[in-house]
Design a protein that fits this description.
With 375 residues, the protein is an alpha/beta fold. It has 2 domains: 127 residues, Enolase-like, N-terminal domain (Enolase-like, domain 1, 2-Layer Sandwich), CATH 3.30.390.10; 224 residues, Enolase-like C-terminal domain (TIM Barrel, Alpha-Beta Barrel). Helix 7 links the parallel strand 9 and strand 10. The mean pLDDT is 97.
């Protein structure tokens, strides 16, 4: 089938996916369910491509905004366009609606999945080729109930996971110190990272960061609010533990300023905040050109978004610190993919099949749908 064929179908599902526990992060919590939007594009020949928008209301935006952007503003720039015209479609999408980076990430994912399935190649091949077959997996610890969290720790270490990220700053400092002490004592072989998710006030940030830096984590991520570039730079200068920026750096525009002002030693790369896979690659390359590191972060995602992130990282040698694509296996009560997301033995294995390699289960989309829209 040809990439010149037109896109004729455009379907949406807004989903509420039940989760196993409450999770607290510095700036907010998730409990009960995480909410996503799934997009399906259909070509004239009948092939389909899928994408996922995974917003978080306190970070990138609301699920309602993602749904509206995809349904009302992005649909007209897609229907009738050629499958292969991805750069042109994405350029129109950026002009059609401001912000809504998760919706644009879903659109580019679906376009790449569709083009890959039509042409018979994986998404990573469309992004420049594969530089790695597997990606080290990190699992985040964010349950405010530490006794429950111990059950997750036992499970993931038994599965071969060797990296954890401790979400801190949502409770008192003693709770954060206690968990770091417990990990050092009970899991000395785990690689540990720390993420404040903007949870600290300016006046407390320096001491709390220095206290946790004494545990020698791999890195400390985003202690203060995204706009406090000056405080980030001060914190970076005060500690010998690498400081990473997440919420401060959405796309290439933020990355340019962050590099110029020296706010971090590395960036969290997320397709949801970058507005797509290619823009995420651009941020990673900007970081590497400035001597900074990068890792593959995520939002509250299902396996479909994890797949998009895995293909992006597979084609981006500049992302060297692994990925956080754990929700499908360790947080959702049930994922939406037809086959399990390929995570085993502490690594994510990058699919080699056409497109993303695995499709969503349509029955699950219908089961968890809050609303839907078809063309």
């Amino acid at each position: 089938m040809s990439l010149d064929q037109k896109i004729v179908g455009y379907d949406l599902w807004q989903l509420a996916l039940p989760v196993t526990t409450r999770r607290d992060h510095g700036i907010g919590s998730v409990e009960g369910a995480c909410e996503i939007v799934v997009l399906r594009l259909t070509a004239e020949g009948g092939e389909v491509g899928f994408g996922e928008a995974s917003p978080w209301v306190v970070f990138t935006g609301s699920v309602e905004a993602s749904y509206a952007a995809l349904d009302r503003y992005l649909r007209p720039v897609v229907i009738g366009q050629r499958v292969g015209d991805i750069p042109q479609i994405m350029a129109k999408a950026r002009r059609a609606v401001a912000h809504c980076t998760e919706a644009k990430a879903a659109l580019e994912t679906a376009l790449l999945d569709l083009a890959g399935r039509v042409s018979g190649v994986p998404v990573w091949a469309l992004l420049g080729g594969k530089c790695r077959d597997t990606i080290p997996l990190s699992v985040s610890l964010a349950n405010p109930d530490w006794e429950e969290e111990k059950d997750l720790l036992a499970r993931i270490t038994a599965d071969g996971v060797g990296i954890v990220k401790v979400k801190v700053g949502f409770a008192d400092h003693a709770f954060d110190v206690m968990r770091m002490e417990a990990l050092a004592r009970d899991y000395p072989d785990l690689k540990v990272r720390i993420d404040f998710n903007q949870g600290l006030e300016i006046e407390e940030a320096m001491q709390r960061v220095l206290d946790l830096a004494a545990f020698k984590p791999d890195f400390i991520e985003q202690p203060v609010r995204a706009h406090h570039f000056d405080i980030m730079a001060q914190l970076r200068a005060a500690t010998n533990v690498p400081l990473l920026a997440d919420e401060s750096v959405f796309g290439p525009e933020d990355a340019k300023r962050a590099i110029s002002e020296g706010i971090a030693d590395g960036f969290s790369i997320k397709i949801m905040k970058s507005g797509g896979l290619r823009r995420a690659q651009e941020v990673a390359r900007m970081a590497a050109s400035a001597g900074l590191s990068a890792y593959g972060g995520d939002m509250f995602e299902a396996g479909l978004a994890h797949l998009a992130g895995a293909h992006m990282i597979a084609a981006t040698p500049e992302i060297t610190l692994g990925c956080e694509f754990y929700q499908a296996q360790y947080y959702l009560c049930e994922d939406i993919l037809q086959d399990p997301f390929p995570s085993q033995g502490g690594v994510v294995t990058v699919p080699n099949g056409p497109g993303l390699g695995i499709k969503p289960d349509l029955a699950k989309l219908e089961h968890y749908a809050v609303r839907s829209s078809t063309s």
